[in-house]
Amino acid sequence: MIFPRNFSCMSHSSSAVFFSDTLPNRLAAIVMLILKRASDFDLLSVCSVKIMQNRLLIECRGKIIIPIAARHEAVRMEMPLVLLLLIGFIGSSFCASQPLHTDVVLFGALGDLSKKYLWQSLFQLYLKEHNENQTFSFYGVSRDKDPDGSHKLTRILDDVSCAGDVSTVCGLKLSEFRHLVKYVQLKADEQFTAFGEETLKNTPKNSNWRLGRIFYLAIPPNVYASVAARLSSCCKLRPGQGTSKLVLEKPFGSDLPSALSMAKEIGQYFTEEEIYRVDHYLAKPVVQQILPFRIRNSEKLEPILNNEHVERIEIAMKETADIKGRIEFYDKYGVIRDVMQNHLTELLALVTMEIPKKHQADFYIRKNKLLSQVQRVKAEHVLTGQYSQYLQHAEKESSNISLSVYTPTFGASLLSIDSPRWNGVPIIMISGKALDERSSYVRIKFKDSMMCVCGCKSFNVSQHSVRQIIFQINPGSLPTVGILVSKNLFSPDLPAGLEDMVVTAQESFVFGQSLNDFYFSIPKKTDNAYVSVIRDLYQGDKKSFVTTEGLEHLWHIWSSVVEETKYKYPKLYIENSDNSLNFQYSNNILRYVDQGSYIDQGKIEEAERLSVSTIPSHFLGHFLQLKPNKQLYIILAEKINELAKSSVDRSGVFHVALSGGSSSIQLYRTILKLFPRFPWRWTQVWQVDERCVPYGDPQSNFRPIDEELLQSVPIPYCNLHPMLDYSLAVVCSNTTVERYQDQLTRGVPGLELDLVILGLGQDGHTASLFPRSPLLKDTQNLVAMTTYESSLKRVTLLYSVLNKAKHTAVIVSGSTKHNALELLTSKEDKHFSDYPILGVDPLSGNLTFYVDYDAWFGK
Q1: Spatial strand order in the sheet of 755-759
Q2: pLDDT reported for residue 361
Q3: Residue 455, Cβ neighbours under 10 Å: how many?
Q4: Is 109 helix (H, G, I), strand (E, B) or coil?
Q5: Would you state the pLDDT for residue 141?
Q6: 3-state SS, residue 214
Q7: What is the pLDDT of residues 309-352, one digit of tens each?
Q8: Residue 552: how many CA atoms within 13 Å on its side-chain side?
Q9: Neighbours of 308 (CB within 10 A)
Q10: How many whole angstroms separate alpha carbon 163 and alpha carbon 160?
Q11: What's the per-residue H, E or C state across 427-454?
């Protein structure tokens, strides 16, 4: 194996650190002897390692360093391993001394991520790593033309600072850095070609310098593949020239198929070793200490970190900020894709995976094995919510409101791991916007198996209180981030990256325990996550990045549930203070403690909590309930149940007139599901209108009422009042109207129905009262027969009955009704002869429009 001058080097970390863990003792001694002798030679020279006649030869500049006989069979069998380790050692030593120039090309250089984090982090890299043997060039790439792009970049660089470092060295380095950064417009193919051929640094022949190129894509993911293709043809270093790295920001697809498709496309141009997918959460100070902490305390912690001792694991990321400015992104991805599928699941892996050996490959093997054991999340394992002003923000950002109504800004999920170590341990994930605090943590709560039998009066409560370990990633109510271990669990040993924090605040509590009940350790370094990302990227440490295999495992866990819940209406919650998000889990199902699906009227005004600012609390002079579809039917069913019980209590009977149609079917099913004790025995069921067709005809209104509702409830047959007499050969005749009018007069005191449920047609009709029908002016009769739709006869209640009702509900559901609502509100001089719904105006009762989001906002 020859190491030529243009040897392509790996990261700065040397393979030598793994010798004692990897080699058998007999070979370790041999290797150490080789290394001792090798130190007398100049490793910058061209070296070779080979086996000749059962001897291992290391040759540098034509001189044999040491020949080792390999006569023992076991040694001969393990010789390839020795060879690889020596190659790694010599290569890393050779590379560590060889000068390196790195071109950093930042796409999206003028974007928010670059402004907030990347340029500052790149300066920190330059500040720490730049010297005569490690040089840099920086290129900020955008589609903006010069000089506009250059001026914008200059303003961004003006905000890059020494961040508290007042030394002269930092000031000089900052000035150097700003002058090194060059703006480049890359849009057309010829611009990419010129950039690669004329701008990027190329090593002169016979030079010792190595080259590295980092292409950081802080741009929309839908252009990753096209940019990668262009970079591959114009700018990527070829084998022997140096190393290239392609850096990608999430999201990496929106589900498993799209993620795999993206990976396959990019894989045509860059290898797995060259691709760095950023999950900045893995670079946060506490997160980077999880595995070192577990390793340092493995003798104490690993025996209890399993299903025999752990009650549950909680992983949370709570934020007080809302989604203003990011509505379009959130409508597409929501909280599950944005946070839970990546950040939180990665945290799950770090606290539950088997402890890896020191080398990077074993880390990924064990991490991916754990992720493969996490079970797919199902819909019953997920709760979602949306903060109340989200739709207001969506309208201001010109988003598609019909899509925004489904967007979850809060999510909770129950996960499980199918392994002997973790089987049966519930893992609960929580993430949300506009919550009560900014806090992120992993909490491991241990079981309490201690029972006091004797001496309980002097029972030491502090020794038997909650036992837990908390990795506090964002501080929340704590003074700082860190790792907390209950004092009644064990006294932790600290890895090199942590130090003890002395707790003095008696009043500080975390999960019901005083801080004084914990050992509290904090990271020695608290660099911004992106500073660590850029450092690890430069050094080639990929533990903070997501591999293709890891990405596939992550999406395998979450892909199906994001599809299943795509059109699930989230629970509404009040910003920053809503206890209704509290939930419980049992039998592998999550449930909100507060089962209500909407916010109490007294807590927040209707227009503020439901939607955009233009939504009134009334519609056409009557009450308005505007809800997502599912919630709409829940609150209407609740109202019907309330009216039925109060009416039966007051008068011993509940008179309700029902309509047909698909909207009513959904209502009937909701009533059956929610109210098994509805007072059916005392309920009299009437019809609003009916087509003159037999019972079995698909157009019959009574048939769905009967099949979807009445056949499933214990209601006496005599309580049913269909408009048509299906026992007759001719279901509609001149006597039909008279018979039904007589039944109403004798059966309903004062003709005051307790509740009438109506619908709204696209032309503004209701019941079977159609525009310009002469029946609209009939004030003498209660019931009438009309013809409409190709002379199909209908029987309908008239205004004289409808307007005597104590309560009237008008259901308006589905996007097809949106135009009807617009027509009703578009003109001032509207008349019930053109829009019959306007003629429904209770004399002394009340009317409420129940409108779902699809009808209100349209598609």
Answers
A1: 618-619, 622-627, 846-852, 807-812, 755-759, 654-658, 683-687, 720-721
A2: 83
A3: 8
A4: coil
A5: 97
A6: strand
A7: 999 999 999 999 999 999 999 999 999 999 999 999 999 999 99
A8: 10
A9: 12
A10: 8
A11: EEEEEECCCCCCEEEEEEEECCCCCCCC
CA 312, 317, 322, 325: dihedral to nearest 10 degrees? -130
CA distance 732 to 727: 11
pLDDT in tens, 613-655: 345 578 888 999 988 888 899 999 999 999 999 999 999 999 9
Chain centroid to CA 648: how far? 47
| Residue listed under structure tokens 């089987």 | 423
Euclidean distance between CA atoms 232 and 229, whole angstroms: 5
Nearest CA to 381 out of 570, 527, 540, 587 is that of 587
Q: Is residue 687 predicted with pLDDT exceeding 60?
A: yes
Q: Is the pLDDT of residue 65 over 70?
A: no
Using the structure block, give the residue that is written with the tokens 């005191």.
749
Quick one: CA dihedral 768, 771, 774, 777, positive or negative? Answer: positive
Cα–Cα distance for residue pair 828/237, rounded to 1 Å: 70
Asked if 55 contacts 70 with a C-beta cutoff of 8 angstroms, the reply is: yes
Per the document, the length of the chain is 859
DSSP 737: H
Residues 92 and 746: their CA atoms lie apart, in Å, by: 99
- Tokens found for residue 763: 């032309």
Nearest CA-CA partner of 801 in 756, 771, 768: 756
Residue at token pair 């019901």: 512
Amino acid 781 reads N
User: Which residues 6+ apart lie within 8 Å of 133 measured at CB?
Assistant: 97, 98, 99, 100
- Alpha-carbon distance of 106 to 533, in angstroms, equals 14
Residue 206, C-beta contacts closer than 8 angstroms, at least 6 positions apart:
5
Q: Which residues contact 276 (CB under 8 A, 6 or more apart)?
A: 245, 246, 247, 248, 537, 542, 545
655: tokens are: 């008179």
Whole-model pTM: value is 0.65
pLDDT of residue 77: 44
Residue closest to 630 by CA, chosen among 573, 673, 685:
673
> Which of these is catalytic: 101, 343, 393, 765?
343
Give catalytic status of residue 553 as yes or no.
no
Tens-place pLDDT, residues 657-666 = 998 777 788 8
CB atoms within 10 A of CB 410: 23
Please, which residues bridge with residue 685 across strands?
A: 656, 720
DSSP-assigned letters across all residues of 771-799: TT-GGGG--S-SEEEEEETTTEEEEEE-H
| Residue 547: HSE in the Cβ half-sphere, 13 Å Cα cutoff | 16
Angle value at C-alpha 87, between 84 and 91, nearest 5 degrees = 145
**pLDDT given at position 595:** 54
Greatest Cα pair distance in the chain: 120
Q: Which two tokens stand for residue 550?
A: 């890891």
Single-letter code of the amino acid located at 380: E
